Structures are given as structure tokens and as C-alpha cells.
Amino acid sequence: MKVKTLGQFIIEKQSDFPYAKGELSRLLRDIGIAAKIVNREVSKAGLVEILGETGETNVQGEKVKKLDVFANEQFIAAFKAGGEVCAIASEENDDIIPIDTEISKNAKYVVAMDPLDGSSNIDVNVSVGTIFSIYRRTSLSGPGTILDFMQRGTEQVAAGYIIYGSSCMLVYTTGKGVNGFTLDPSIGEFCLSHPNMRTPQNGNVYSINEGNYLHFPDGVKKYIKYCQEEDKATNRPFSSRYIGSGVADIHRNLITGGVYIYPTTTKSPKGKLRLLYECNPLAYILEQAGGKASNGAKRIMELDINELHQRTPLFIGSSQMVDKALEFMAKYKTEEV
Ligand code: AHG
Ligand code: MN
Ligand code: MN
Fold first, then answer.
1. Ligand 1 centre distance from Cα of residue 258 (Å)
2. Mean pLDDT of residues grouped by 10 in the chain (337 residues)?
3. Cα–Cα distance between 271 and 129 in angstroms, integer?
4. Nearest to residue 313, comparing CAs of 274, 287, 283?
5. Can you give the pLDDT at residue 128?
6. Pocket of ligand 1 (CB under 6 A)
7. Whose CA is nearest to atom 17 of ligand 1?
8. C-alpha triplet 83, 87, 88: angle, nearest 5°
């Protein structure tokens, strides 16, 4: 079998963007390199000192594990060395990181990322991920500014995720479909394993942290009950699958068909997940694979953003399943989302 590496694929695809000078290709390649380094550390997390908490907390007040810090540093270093981005926004940093080095300060792109998603799963050898989202800068020159990140998801130039799972995979889109690459550890290369990924229009998996049930909006409660009802024609009851690593849950549902929901709760009245570096990139991937992403009422990628760490509820996955959940949201609407 002829293997196509991520590097070869990126070069081939460069002709899709005749006006581009290769910066985006180089940026994607840099992400691939940082991903391999993070994967190396994730895969030996059980062995080395790096495992465990640093004792610090991040902007959201959550415990930070050492691998979050490591992944954050690796990706930042890769972006700085690559010279293709003029600013970075990360879950792990309160403010943006403007880059003012000679090679980067006039770069075209900004990157937003969740360097390690699902970090509560690190200590128990369960899949974690990285999510990234790339925008063209709106500022004219010099290091990037916060305004460069205040763009709707529809303006994304590229987005993707890396899943550090039983295999390490990199999945990305530049708006022309979704392609997935699996790391072959024997040659140290991401190889095209999932060309033109499409998500089934329908599925029978629903993924939600049901422990929060009492705090969910009525529409979500009713939808969960719908998923659990017996009905041969629609293949119900559906299966409940929830890893607690958004990337892993959404990746599984992308492949098998399913819906992932993180709604508002009384504890998190705006939802838990972050629009800029979790929901928008995942929404872009899912839409490009034929699926949907909504906040319960509106398309995720059309939401206005005015804060770096803005949260939103998320309904994402197979289009018919998302539509069904939204039907319940509309029918039992009690509050504004
Ligand atoms: P992170 O590790 O980057 O903070 O993200 C965790 C997110 C997401 O990956 C996951 O689906 C969700 O939080 C799980 O939240 P609950 O534990 O509240 O279900
Ligand atoms: Mn996350
Ligand atoms: Mn994270």
C-alpha cells in the first residue's frame, strides 16, 4: 500500500489555494511536529515524573496538570519558531501571546488552541486531545492583538484536533472536507488513513454528562428521555457514551454517528466549553464532515465573540440527531441561550 504522509498531503493541497504562499502549509506542518512531541510525552505519562498536578490553576479556575503546561509550551514554541503566526490564544493563558520576533511580527495568521483537552483523563490512561483554530489576522501589521481573535467561527481558515488515543491521529480541515492522519510510530510520520471523512447523518449514540441532569434545561432533559425510549423504527434506545474528553467523544461520534451535548447547567449558566478554541474548531470540522453544531438555538460558527475565554453550550454531531435535540430545545424553551 502506498502511504501518503501529512507533509506530502499538505504540499499536494497547496494548489487548492493558488493565492497562498505556503504559510498555512508550513503552519499545519509545525502543528504536526508539536503534536508528535506531545504524543511522545502523553504516551509515557504513566512512567515519568511529569504525571500529576502542578498545583497551579488556569484562567477557568480548574486544576492544571503538568501535561497541559507541557503541551501549551510545545505548541507555543512551535508557533514561535515557525514564524507563521503573529499571536496565540490558549486555554492556559489569561491573555493572548503577541509574537514580536523579526520573523513573526508581520505574519498573516493567529492561532487559538486548547493545548490539552480532557486533562482530567491524563492520570487514568484515557484519550486526551489538542484542538486548534487558525484565523487570518485583521490587524494590519506588527504583533497580533486581541481583536484578531474576535472573529466569528465562519472566518476560520483551518481548524483541527489531535487525539492522543490508542493511536495518535491528526484531523483537520481547510474548508475543503476533513482528512485524518494516523501517526505510524515506526516511521514517526502522520499518514493519511481517513481521507474525506464524512459523519453519518444519523446515529445511535448520545454523549452528555448525565450527572448534571437535574441542572439541565428542560429541552435537554426531554431529549435524553427521548434517546432512552423504546422505538424500533428509530433504533431507540440509543447508547450513552461519555469519556469526558471532548475531542475523543466527538471524534468517536464523527466516525460512528452520534450527538455530543454540553448544555448550560445551573453551575455553568453559559455552558462549560469555550467558543474560541473548543467549539468553533470542532464545529468547523463537524460541518465540513456533513454534521452540525449549535448552541441550542443558533449555529456555533455564527455566534459573536467578545471575550477570549467565552463559554457556550454545545450541541454537535450527526445532523439529524442535532436537529432532533434542537427541536426539543425549541419546544421546551424556558430561558434564552
Ligand atoms: P479541558 O480538559 O480542556 O478543560 O476540557 C474538558 C472539557 C471537555 O473535553 C469535556 O468534554 C468536558 O470538559 C468534560 O466536562 P465534565 O467533566 O463537566 O463532563
Ligand atoms: Mn478542553
Ligand atoms: Mn485544556
1. 18
2. 90 80 92 97 76 68 77 97 97 97 93 96 93 97 97 98 97 97 96 98 98 97 98 97 98 98 94 98 99 98 98 98 98 73
3. 20
4. 274
5. 97
6. 62, 91, 114, 117-119, 209, 244-246, 249, 272
7. 244
8. 105
**To the nearest whole number, what is the mean pLDDT of the chain?**
94
Q: Which grid cell is 13?
A: 493541497
CB-based contacts of 299: which residues, under 8 Å, 6+ apart? 283, 292, 293
Measured over the CA atoms of residue 10, residue 13, residue 16 and residue 20, the dihedral's sign is positive
Predicted local distance difference test score (pLDDT) of residue 105: 84
Phi-psi region of 163 (alpha: psi -120 to 50; beta: other; left: phi over 0): beta
Residue 126 backbone phi and psi in degrees, to 5: -115, 150
Residue nearest to atom 18 of ligand 1 (CA): 209
In a mutational test of the pocket of ligand 1, which residue from 59, 120, 213 has the highest number of ligand atoms less than 8 Å from its CB? 120
Q: What per-residue confidence (pLDDT) applies to 52?
A: 59
Q: How far apart are CA 28 and CA 32, in angstroms?
A: 6
Nearest Cα residue to atom 14 of ligand 1: 244
> Which cell goes with 41?
510525552
Q: Residue 49: what pLDDT? A: 59
DSSP β-bridge partners for residue 134: 111, 158
In contact, 232 and 221? CB cutoff 8 Å: no
Within 52-192, residue ranges assigned H as helices are: 66-82
- Helical spans, DSSP H, in the chain: 6-13, 23-43, 66-82, 218-228, 246-256, 280-288, 319-331
CB 325 within 8 A of CB 293: no
Q: Which residue has the cell 453544531?
A: 293
